[in-house]
Amino acid sequence: MTVTTQNEKLVTLEEYVIEAQAQFPKATGEMTQLLMDITLGAKIIAREINRSVLKDINSAETITEPHSFKRARLEQFAKEQMYYALNRSNEVCLMITDDMAEPEMLNEGTGKYIVVLDPLDGTSNIAFNGAVATTFSIYRRKTHPESVIDPTEALRSGNEQVVGGYVLYGSSIMLVFTAEGMGVSFFTLDPAIGEFCLSNENVSVPEFKSNFSINTSFYELWSEVDQGFFDYLTGNDNLAGKAYSLRYGGSVVSDVHRILMEGGLFGYPPNSLNPRGKLHLMYKCNPLAFIMEKAGGVATNGDVRLLDIRPGKIHYQTPVFMGSVKNMQEYSDFRTNFEDKK
Ligand code: F6P
After folding, report:
1. Beta strand 113-121 with 92-97: parallel, antiparallel or unpaired?
2. For the chain, what are the domain ranges?
3. Containing H/E element for 121?
4. Given this model, what pLDDT does residue 20 score?
């Protein structure tokens, strides 16, 4: 029988992680199961996003308040699905999501893993069919899995992630993740067979690209150095010798995903409305920073590596700059020269 090349090459997420598990002594079957549970939640969320317009057509609320209603409903749906997904195994002791006041214990606070996630980020994009995403980080708990966890154990630096990833619900549904001892891999959902299939392995971010992704409407509210950097990027006296292109979609995952594939710099500088930054470290920035660094890029808050920050609270917010090595070097050189000239 002749086997087609396409069939020969199909590798499902499950096959991939089981093989990876065999290579890395620290990888466990429970971790594989947990990743599969998260991706099951993501598939259900993806299906709901795809059907959301159809579902909302006949709803009274969408007629009076179309965007906010759809947004709130999908956010709630995504949170519930992830809650069910993480409850499938008995391995998760603690779950933290973006809208929780306090971490929530699962499995009565026992189990080996802590999962921090944003079930649906970028929901303002839902209104016009833009990309949204789920971001997640998995930590191994340090205390005994059979004891009831103290929720403050979740306040760990991103360096301690064992898995970091995201699912991007865009023109196709893509899972991107990395884990201890592994590179960055992309898996695309094949809706016909319901499986995430390997599409890119050991992804590395290009060293440089004359693109930046920053909400420049906050220019007047930025610090002098960030204003100066924007002026520098849009002038001619920079590394590219020409004005950089602005690529900003308003959804951090799709903006960073683009940079992962094409190169460039993503930034969310502090501004006078959000002097400590806007984006949340634990469930948004850490998984993205873990992936960016594993792909050979750099991720900082402007001064220090994001992955080195130990948050004092679960909703810790931070300035963010991440991307290609040379773009990030250019940013840090600009800051140093700016300070020196003062
Ligand atoms: O944190 C939510 C979020 O939608 C991110 O995905 C995105 O990068 C950011 O907010 C956009 O913020 P702004 O609208 O201020 O540019």
Report:
1. parallel
2. 2-202, 211-341
3. strand 113-121
4. 83
Ligand 1 centroid, distance to 112 Cα (angstroms): 32
Does 99 sit in the ligand 1 pocket, CB within 6 Å? no
104, 222 Cβ separation under 8 angstroms:
no
Q: From the CB of 199, is ligand 1 less than 6 Å away?
A: no
CA distances in angstroms from 70 to 77, 192, 299, listed in the order given: 10, 26, 33
CATH no. for 211-341 = 3.40.190.80
Count of Cβ atoms closer than 10 Å to residue 302 Cβ: 18
Residue 128 confidence (pLDDT) above 70:
yes
Q: Is 271 in the pocket of ligand 1 (CB under 6 A)?
A: no
185-190 and 195-200 beta bridge pairing: antiparallel
Percent of the chain with pLDDT over 90: 79
Largest CA distance in the chain: 73
How far does residue 122's CA lie from ligand 1's centre (Å)? 6
Q: Which CATH class is domain 2-202?
A: alpha beta
**What spacing in Å lies between the alpha carbon of 125 and ligand 1's midpoint?**
10
